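Worked problem 6 (solution included).
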Amino acid sequence: MRIAQISPLYEAVPPKGYGGTERVVSWLTEALVAAGHELTLFASGDSDTSARLVPCAPRALRLDPQAGDAIAAHVLMLERAFLRAEEFDVIHAHVDYLSFPFARRVETPVVTTLHGRLDLPCLQPVFREYREQALVSISDAQRKPLPESDWRATIHHGLPRDLYRFSRHTDGYLAFLGRISPEKRVDRAIEIAVRAGRKLLVAAKIDAADRAYYEREIRALFAHPLVEYVGELDDADKQEFLGRADAVLFPIDWPEPFGLIMIEAFACGTPVIAWPHGSVPEVVEPGVNGFLCSDIDSAVRAVENLRCLDRARCRERFEERFTSDRMARDYLATYERLAA
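Solution. The predicted structure is:
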């Protein structure tokens, strides 16, 4: 098939550091190219891809101090992509609702994967107006606020089978990976580790929007002798960070649409201790690749029970459920139904 992938411009494809959506776009694109399909990727110019790259910004907007208005850059990218609609059998957009007005005006099938939370009241009028748009959710939980939308599939994320290696031996610490933000609850992770008497390594970026929260609520917590902040990691650093951890703590306080961190941990054989919000119960299998907890006490008990989990089984469940090859097959089936 001739497939266009339209990525957000905030990060390169794949991102140089933290970044979820653009990373998934990369994994999907590479898997589809490997399967013999003709891919055109609309993304930032510093992207690295096997597809035909159409650069729509010189580099990732988050890393470009001269970037200016991000919406302007995305509108121009969408104009360029949809002017070429007849060249493709299907257009796959990853820029939320920004593509909807363009998709409405072309005959080429368009599908949009929604990567963010959908329970915000301000989104309801937009999705009511564009109710005919074909959508893919990344978890069943994500789509619940929009039951009347045209959902074509739920497709869980997947990552390359060989991106991370299985690690049988660990260094005994707990890990937190993500962003320093109120909904990610690194404060809970710190409390769990301290009460369990375990070392916690925190690998996270601090966005400008969360800087005040970090200074007000988190900075002082990092002074505890059991807590070490190691900064923002790339994929190469994640192997060691996740693979040597006894468990990843994912004590979120929001309706997580998916949570890539969980399957990255599973790929290393590392279980996850998480709060059961959003997609988490669809990803974590209690007693198999982690534990679901609703309070600090149960999370501390889960840390104490980690020895009951088989790290090899965590890796096996990753290979069975969360590879990019499986994700690509699921998307290809969706494309074919749309094209038909």
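Discussion: The chain has two domains: 2-160+323-339, 173-321.
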